[in-house]
User: Fold these one by one.
Assistant:
Number 1:
Amino acid sequence: MENCIINKAYINGKWVDAQSGLTLEVTNPATGDVIGTIPNMRKIDAEIAVQAAKEAFVTWSKTTAAYRGDLMRKWFDSIIEHKDMLAYYLTLEQGKPLKEAKGEIVYGASYIEWFAEEAKRIYGDIIPATNIDQQIMVTKQAIGVCAAVTPWNFPNAMITRKVAPALAAGCTFIIRPASETPYSALLLAKLAEEVGIPKGVFNVITGDAKEIGKVLTESPDVQKFSFTGSTPVGRLLMAQSASTVKKVSLELGGNAPFIVFDDADIDKAVEGAVLAKFRNAGQTCVCANRIYVHSKIYSTFVEKFTQVVRTLKVGNGLTEDVDIGPLISQKALDKVWVYINDAKEKGGQIEIGGNSLSGLFFEPTVISHANDQMLFTKEEIFGPIAPIYSFDTEEEVIKRANDTEYGLAAYVYSQNLGTVMRVTDGLEYGIIGVNTGLISNATAPFGGMKQSGLGREGSKYGIEDYLEIKYISVNW
């Protein structure tokens, strides 16, 4: 395959180095090999990007929805045409299995396709007036320059999910991708450039997270800021954004309960739990973090779940038939060990796994007899560990599932409609999958409650964060 590594950032339609000339190395987590470098940009580079996006907004916001939608459709078509290439580089820099990477590319592109069509559906209102000589009109217009800091676990889809609604609404955008996985963002920019998205409309700036983030959150020229990542960092960025009272959307940490009732189809529940837990080596915000199984079927579930986990293959994501790739860093691997040792000390039983392999690889691990004193009961694991808890009553499991500061995703398995309705109503989560381990798609609103974030991405609701409502009173 032709080398498509881009070692420059993309600002105002140009491929540029950092003003300082400094660079950062990017490594393959599966091998430790250096893939390439990226510009290590700082405050001045971020300010240049903001100015470029500000100038481009003047003309982009005045284009028609049809024009923006047509360009976005071309971008979508180009991504699908190059999906194999994009998936290869995503796996190279992030580590997830190639089949998962291909799925992410198609999933990420679906947001561009969806919002290309939603651009034409930004409707206003005429409200019945209180006086006979008055008309009340409500219009919606692009909020302005938007910026985002995106994570390494979904380096393609977390970008398209934010950029697509913004561009559809008429906003311009600045992305600061994770330094571990910058090439997916830069390749998206390359394809956007090739299909004719104007300069300054979509910018990718790489480098120092602290300095760049401070500019993007505190600049008065940035009207909307979005972040996907940990809750502690989200709190900090939200506080920084308060200085200019800009609109903020946050998709933060999760601690997803996966609840299996005694009337569930156990085989389907096992299949869904494996999917929800071990995708991307457990490094997703909607991973099944706590698996609650009714005591009547606990032993059967653990046995069947462990049998399936035993078949999962760990290895380099570019190798055929691999199910689980490496963790992203040594820090992530060290964190997994903390949870393993803590669980053992507190009575957890390792049914399978529990060991490091070479490099950043870790065996998929099942821990039975999990209890509420273990660290991962309150903390997000972000690794291939599946703790399985036992419960007896509906009321009990709802209370335990909600006993967390997070409220992003949850899963419920039951064949009883009454149980499903009561439990989904009682769970304090923004996304709930019933009898499924796959919950995200472009047509549905993605986002959480409590300290899992603010706002929604995807669906008809996702474009609202990029619009301002204007009320016009016309009197005669």
Number 2:
Amino acid sequence: MIMHGTTIIGIHRNGKTAICGDGQVTMGDAIVKGKAQKIRKIYDGKVIVGFAGATADAFSLLERFEEKLKTNKGNLKKAAIDLAKDWRQDRILRRLEAMLIAGDKDSILLINGAGDVLEPDDNIIAIGSGGNYALAAARALAHKTKLGASEIAVEALNIASGICIYTNNNYIVEEI
């Protein structure tokens, strides 16, 4: 059975990074959970991560990512590149089905199993079922308002939840 139900939006704006995620998990055409926690602070609260995809896979990646952060003394970009290399090259990791958004006080990145580490030009990135809806809303808000990173992330997720059936407005937002 196919599981859907994640929207994660990350924004770096005015020296702050926020990641917001909804809580819905859907199996087939039924909502099986409404308050899943898909956002975490790691590395002593200095890095925020949000994940989309298979939960067990995402937690495996989060653990490895935190190890890479420790090895690279908190260098987000270097840790992300090292994780992406391992993810792409390791037979077991290669089968993991998840994506991560990671941010610190200086930047925000998308990390995926294809070996990509992407830093968005406009400092806004989204993943998951409602990701494109949240991304469009966040870009519009960023261009037309003076709202902060957290406020834009929450409003973008609320907009996505009104469009995407796999997204709800039970959200968690973390900011650094």
